[in-house]
Amino acid sequence: MNRIVSGLFRVSIVLVMAFITLPLIVVMAASLSPSSQVTLVPWEWTVRWYGDLVARRWIDPFILSAQIAVLVSLISGVLGLLAAYVVAFEKCPGHAAIMSFLLSPLAVPQIVKGVAIVLFLSSAGLYRWVGTPGLVAAHIILTLPFAVRMIATAMFNFDRNLDRAGQSLGATKAQRIRHLLIPIIKPGVFSGMTFAFIISFNNIPLSVFLVRPGQTTLPITVINYLEYSLDPVLAAVNVASLLFVLAVIFVFEKIGGFSAQIHGGSK
Amino acid sequence: MSTSDIELINLSKNFGASQIVREIDLVVPHGEFVSILGPSGCGKTTTLNMIAGFIAPSSGQIRIRGVEQSGVPPEKRQVGLVFQNYALFPHMTVAQNVGFGLKMQGKSRDEVDTQVKKALQSVHLDGLEHRYPKALSGGQQQRTALARAIAPRPSLLLLDEPLSNLDLKLREAMRIELKDVQRELGITFVYVTHDQEEAMAMSDRIVVMHEGVIAQVGSPSELYRAPQSTFVADFIGKSNIFAVTPTANGGGIQRVRIAETGLELLAASPATVSSEIAFCSIRPEALRWIEVNTSTEHPINVLPVKIIKIVNLGAYLEVWCRHQSNTIFKALISAARGGQLAIDVAIELTVEPAAIKLLIH
């Protein structure tokens, strides 16, 4: 009986993993297709579509998206840390209500938020903000709840006795934050920043309202291109941006060590 | 300049309507190992946290080294602290943990290194400087926590049940080590525990707390020999405790009757007024088994009983005996002597009048 259960368990794990990875495999295969149509011909392949990516029409949006994502990730990390500290660690008056408020943007559809932001900017006479500043601000609204949530969780899990131990050893509040709290919750901060980076880098529904002509982010460029042609260069763009995101996650994990937090270990 | 490290004056703490600590007075001279002993919820940890500065008293005063501490934050009190769960900094090595206090004081690197080495030596942890806490055993973590607390050389160390997460053998070994460290460094230890054996083994003085008040203060042997209440008699070691009514007094002997049995015992007359006596307490080892045919003496308080249960404690047997009046006595008899004892065997017990403690509450 146990063997049947564990067999079913293994099969279901394989199915779930296949379900997650198959689309990626299909895109990778398509990006290597020699035909100008998106087809799957496993025994013929070429890398010429990747050569096309060097063109400015792809490089410029990539750089813009990466710049925005880095800014959004950094600002979300700093704001998230400050908010989580006050709400989750110091437990300021009304902390539960403030936390709910900080998480509330999650409940609003992105399209609605996008429309609202554009309406706000135009009626407030700030239409010139459309473009990079607007994109950064809008993405932060989207990513902040994730960052706050991740960092607040790390703060909730922080053992208060460590703070008390630091206090009994004569450490001032600033010293305790710097030497105890921040290093220990660092994985939480970096996982929040990673989420913010990925969400910003891949965002379409908000960005679509805020890009300027000739100055579009990578996902919007892909959408625009898709309207007129469907060829393997899109698959190549997707694979390349996937690899870029993976590389960023790898670097963040190296600095922040958050997989230990996810897997429950520590160094 | 006062030579006492801690003075608690009329100290109280309420949380809402419930009084956790009620009007405690205590003076701890420098260099003393004092335990605050009591069951959970007796207020001992709250008292410790008030001394450390994590909880503000509702009323009363705390003086540390003669200085009143109200409004002084924990980081300014120069009081070392050892936690039950050790609270080691997980991202720092043993050496960094132990050096933390000195580093925060802005001591030079050389000085930190020397003091860390000293502290690690005094807890026998040399050679593990570069390990992280999670790579240490429970006992090593405990020593690291102790070394971290003593490295900045506080005159006063508070310990909150520091041994309760260790297994029995290690706990017994650590008791002796803790006491040695305390004696060598000449630091005042305030040790909070619910384990009376631990308190008995290490302390110069024990403060027994019960429901927020101090039930009794004394050396371990004083508390054992002369408990002043049934609570202390029961909490420190084991006791046979009976509700009694005093009957007659004379010739240095107080007669008492165990309630609802008619069994009368003769106790040494206490200093207190006889009419207030309400309980008596007899230590299990004070109940002597009179082996048949060996007795030429004529002891008083002879109790013919029948054995109803025997609990083997290794060197001793705890023998539960029922008197015909239905009173149950638990006697401690050495296993070497008690070989032929068995359930339903009738024996005679006796107890010296001086070994019967008469108590008011």
What this model shows, in words?
The complex is a heterodimer of chains A (267) and B (361). In chain A, helix 3 (56-89) runs antiparallel to helix 8 and helix 7 (160-168) packs antiparallel against helix 8. Chain A has a single domain (56-263), classed as MetI-like fold, CATH 1.10.3720.10. Chain A starts with a helix and ends with a helix. By secondary structure, chain A is mostly helical. Chain A has 12 helices and no strands. The model of chain B has no long low-confidence stretch (mean pLDDT 89). Chain B has 361 residues and is α+β, with helices and mostly antiparallel strands. Chain B has 2 domains: 4-231, P-loop containing nucleotide triphosphate hydrolases (Rossmann fold), CATH 3.40.50; 238-359, Beta Barrel (OB fold (Dihydrolipoamide Acetyltransferase, E2P)). In chain B, strand 1 and strand 2 (18-29) form a beta hairpin. Classes of the chains: A mainly alpha (267), B alpha+beta (361). The A-B interface holds A 159, 161-162, 164-172, 175, 179-180, 183-184, 266-267 and B 52-54, 73-81, 83, 85, 87-91, 100-101, 104-105, 132, 134, 148-149, 152, 158.
